[in-house]
Write a structure and sequence with these properties.
The chain is of the alpha/beta class and 252 residues long. The protein folds into 2 domains: 136 residues, Response regulator (Rossmann fold), CATH 3.40.50; 107 residues, Beta Barrel (OB fold (Dihydrolipoamide Acetyltransferase, E2P)). 31% of the residues lie in helices and 32% in strands. The protein is built from 8 helices and 17 strands. The strands form 5 sheets. It has a 5-stranded parallel sheet with strand order 2-1-3-6-7, sandwiched between helices. The chain has a 5-stranded antiparallel sheet with strand order 12-11-10-14-13, with helices on one face. α4 links the parallel β6 and β7. The longest helix is centred in the N-terminal third of the chain and has 14 residues. The radius of gyration is 23 Å and the shape is elongated. The relative contact order is 0.09.
């Protein structure tokens, strides 16, 4: 097997190579590349590669740019410091992802998966079309606070203080941990795009909830779910039937 390691941190690259050799000393590491630019240059001259280990964020940009600027045609195992939710979002088309710091067991599992899916008798290349979408999601800057009006005053409220957003009579509000509601100038659809989907989920047309505010989830009529919050006594936070499956995945 011939592999390439793309990693801009020297110690991280050395560790990956050491673990690869520990897994199978016959694996040949053709190159250790440190940037998008160097990777594009290398792949323009070298095409005989079986597998690439690729850090998501390099010093000169996102590694997805390598796909756009070169003719890389090999399966990739991404390495990342992003959280588990992000890694799950990446798991498409038999590509694997390793969370830093990488351990030997995880790397072995990824290499075994590669062997099973991309053996010597197959040349199937993963579809990377979803990778760019997820990379954009991960690098998007979400709001960390909302500004509300309290009489003649303006008050910033951190998103960590918000239990949920809700709509009422064509207006939108946030509800805080100290059980206060404040009107917002955004629609609930707009707010949904402004907050981190790791933390907030749109359970219905009326509610957008913070995962840290949920106390318990109760089975409700007609295969729906009902939420109880740690602070609020709100009794109408119902997960709509069509969102139950996605909501359960989000909770996990």
């Amino acid at each position: 097997m011939k592999v390439v390691v793309i990693e801009d941190e020297h110690l991280a690259a050395k560790r990956i190579i050491d673990l690869i050799k520990k897994y199978d000393d016959s694996i040949e590491v053709l190159a250790k590349l440190e940037s998008v630019k160097k990777s594009v240059e290398w792949f323009s001259k070298n095409t005989s590669v079986d597998l690439v280990f690729m850090d998501i964020q390099l010093a000169d940009g996102l590694s997805f740019e390598i796909f756009e600027q070169s003719s890389l045609q090999a399966p990739v195992i991404f390495t990342t410091a992003f959280d588990e939710y992000a890694i799950r979002a990446f798991k498409v088309n038999s590509i694997d992802y390793l969370l830093k710091p990488i351990d030997f067991e995880e790397l072995s599992r990824a290499l075994n998966k590669y062997k099973n899916n991309f053996g010597s008798t197959t040349n199937v290349i993963p579809d990377y079309s979803k990778v760019e979408e997820v990379l954009q999601m991960l690098t998007k800057q979400y709001k960390s606070r909302f500004v509300v009006k309290v009489g003649n005053h303006i008050r910033p409220i951190e998103v960590t203080e918000i239990q949920y957003f809700y709509s009422l009579e064509k207006s939108s509000y946030l509800y805080t941990n100290d059980n206060k509601s404040y009107a917002l100038d955004f629609s609930l659809d707009q707010i949904e795009n402004l907050v981190d989907p790791n933390s907030f989920f749109r359970i219905s047309r009326k509610f957008l909830v913070n995962i840290s505010a949920i106390k318990e989830v109760i089975s409700y009529s007609k295969s729906r779910l009902k939420l109880k919050f740690k602070q609020s006594t709100e009794d109408n936070a119902i997960v709509s039937r069509e969102k139950v499956g996605a909501f359960k995945d989000w909770l996990e």
